[in-house]
Amino acid sequence: xxxxxxxxxxxxxxxxxxxxxxxxxxxxxxxxxxxxxxxxxxxxxxxxxxxxxxxxxxxxxxxxxxxxxxxxxxxxxxxxxxxxxxxxxxxxxxxxxxxxxxxxxxxxxxxxxxxxxxxxxxxx
Length: 124
Known about the structure:
The protein is of the alpha+beta class.
């Protein structure tokens, strides 16, 4: 994920936690906060030490980043977004992580499926 899409400062994380709204499923918690004057999405990822040692946490972050990167065009949000991983993610594979993350993004109402050429041809 490019650095222009990353949320890094502790102050920015705290603002999103305090002022943003949250949505969750069994695997993820997502906080979203709209930002005035920000024309792009900024994403932060948090994985607790409770989920495992550094190797496990970094694997989880890589899976989340890849799932977000592939679905970035479908995320219709200009502001800050934080993804927090919960316990079950440690044993999941990529496809399960991606599906669960998309489900949580849809619940947060920031995910909008992009139309493909096949969808647009549909029933004419």
